[in-house]
Amino acid sequence: QVQLVESGGGLVQAGGSLRLSCTASGRAFSPYRMGWFRRAPGKERGFVTSITWSTGTTYYADSVKGRFTISRDNAKNTVYLQMNSLKSEDTAVYYCAVAMASIAIYDVWGQGTQVTVSS
Known about the structure:
Layout: E1 3-7, E2 10-13, E3 18-25, E4 33-39, E5 45-52, E6 58-60, E7 68-73, E8 78-83, E9 92-99, E10 108-109, E11 113-118
Parallel strand pairs: 2-11
Antiparallel strand pairs: 1-3, 3-8, 4-5, 4-9, 5-6, 7-8, 9-10, 9-11
């Protein structure tokens, strides 16, 4: 059973940067894709970014394009989210997820890590 552990959240001032990490453990890890989602206070969880594991192809929500970068380290079973030029509206719990059985479905989720951006 694959498990995901996120780290790197915290409190940062607007305009600052944070890097989140998500490491997968468990059985042989060969996902279709990994992604980051976030849930802001009072809002539904939403897509932030994803990366196709084999090709490195990335996708971003319009709200984070040009500010956030997703990357992966296949050898470490780890995906990163570099967040720059943070805004107060980026405040949320960030979740890592992985699509193992199908490229269309994220079937394993991390516990979430809080990111708070102060203005």
